[in-house]
Amino acid sequence: MKTTYPASPRGDHVDVYLDASGAEVRVADPYRWLEDPDSPETRAWVQAQRVLTEAHLTDLPERHAYRARIRELWDAPAEGAPWQRGGQYFRQVNPGLLNQPLLQVAPSPRGPWRTLLDPNALSADGTVALAGTSVSPQGRLLAYGTQSAGSDWVTWRVRDVQSGEDRPDTLEWSKFGGAAWLPDESGFYYAAYDAPASGGALTGTNRNQRLKLHRVGTAQAQDEVALQRPDEPDWGFRARVTNDGEYLVIHVWKGTARKNQVWVRPLGRAEAFRELVGDFRAAFEVLGNDGPLFYLHTDEDAPRGKVITWNLTTGERRDLVPEGPDAVEQGALVPGGLLLLTLRDASHRLTLHDRTGAQVRDLPLPGPGAVETLHTQPDDPEVFLTFTSFLTRPAPYRLDVTGGSLEPLSTEIPAFDASKFEVTQEFAVSRDGTRVPMFIVAPRGLKRDGTNPTLLYGYGGFNNALKPAFNAARLAWVERGGVFVQANLRGGGEYGKDWHEAGTLERKQNVFDDFIACAEHLIRTGVTAPAHLGIHGRSNGGLLVGACMTQRPDLFGAAIPQVGVLDMLRYHQFTIGWAWASDYGRSDDPAMLGHLLAYSPLHALKAAAYPPTLIVTGDHDDRVVPGHSFKFGAQLQHVQQGDSPTLLRLETRGGHGAGKPTALLIDEWADILAFLEHHLR
């Protein structure tokens, strides 16, 4: 039965662009009015869409079953890896179903733990979340940032660790940066923007970031501007004070490309910064220093990454750990050595090297999977990490790098029998012959008869690697006989810089080809069939879903584009969207216009039969503004030729995803999986 949709008036707005030949290209934008989330017209339209969606979801019996089971699986202690400052240990933990995790402190990594900060007390609905924490070097003060309703805007405050009381300090309009303490704990560096214009907090562009120094106990108006570059409005600054307290290191970023500058100067001295790296030719991450000898992780002339040393006194630079067969994801200094976390076919390996670069040993991990967090100190042999896999919850471990022993810091009481499931890795072959890995999580003994409801998930962008990770909702899906597949597409960081760049700019179609190849592999090998295959992706992954469902609507039985970048011609006009041009290119670049128009999901929609689609977004998403989802939904409803529904799920007081309360996450996942199961069975 064909769905009756709320009225979506089509305007006559037309934009004019120039293509690579210099010719004008006229592009209609009939739903431009939906870009304003606060207009009465948009609010009325959204409310009508919500009523329609709720009516559809309420009728799904699977919804209640998923909500109950996800809640059961979620209701287990989630303990983060501790970290040490000034002889005290800190961790985040959620005992089960709290909307936000607690921040705790203890004299030992085994406790006893005392709650230092409970974000659940900061709002009635659990939508105020911790967005950043930084403990001062002696462990006396905590700088903590909070975000409200999922917005990227952060407010910083200072809490006394001993008393648990807040100081009067309140720092507003911070974004895209942490807090770096001075060695004497008198203050910290943080990233700041001007207060946005009235009504522009969630849509206005974010430029002209400044690095400011806040002195504890003073008003924000007195903060010193430590660094600003009004001549380079797209530059941002991340500060770090070296462990020995001798140097201030500045990581200068420009957009989301992993290419940055590195500036260094002695701390507390009125000297100009030394531009150790003065351009954006590659990625450089300072790992630490031995006096003037700095250790850096870089992909310069090493697409899979290497570690170098750079002597500030002599200027000598040399390769310490040369590029190897696996992609280096993270490095960290430990006493007398260096830890390297590397990726091999999207799973982690951990190795110890000495300060000459020679490998000392492979360090144990609990099994195939991923290290989610790694906490180290260059002068402390205790290393703490969190490990996870598709079938094991994230759990904290203590690693003694001296002896190589790995000790669990928690005991999991599983609410499921992991022996009933199996994880395999297979490889699809993309259009150009590239092998594309994917993990398949399924009931043990899966019958490959083409009837299994299957959820294919991907991302494929910004050098971000998808690794094995536990997800209670996806486990509930597999428990009910479904198959979950995670694809590792080009555009990500699974195999280093070359793999990433192969899915960017004019090569972005490779990402969609890889995803389609994974879908075809699942069909060809009998895992599923088009009618039983659903696709899901978030943010850049929402773009992935939008592009693939418009290019191959015949291949999928359902689609979930979540907080997706769906209007590729105008994404750069809002908040931090301009920063994504390193992956996408921009429509005001004639050389890129044709490439963007070729796959932009909003503009690729035409009269056709598309699969059942649930578009998911949040009204406080100031990363990918909800106008993307609104316009795509209105256009898809307009052109849909089949009986499949196109529904919009809007989360109020919901953002891009960070800090979303547990209760809202459970409801959101229950709706997504119920929609998929209903349409894929």
TrEMBL record:
Domain Peptidase S9A N-terminal: 7-410
Reaction equation(s) it catalyzes: Hydrolysis of Pro-|-Xaa >> Ala-|-Xaa in oligopeptides
EC code: 3.4.21.26
Highest taxon in the source lineage: Bacteria
Keyword Hydrolase listed: yes
Ranges for domain Peptidase S9 prolyl oligopeptidase catalytic: 470-680
SUPFAM superfamilies for this protein: alpha/beta-Hydrolases (SSF53474), Peptidase/esterase 'gauge' domain (SSF50993)
Keyword Hydrolase: yes
Pfam families attached to this UniProt entry: Peptidase_S9, Peptidase_S9_N
PANTHER family with a match to the protein in the record: PROLYL ENDOPEPTIDASE (PTHR42881)
Protein name: prolyl oligopeptidase
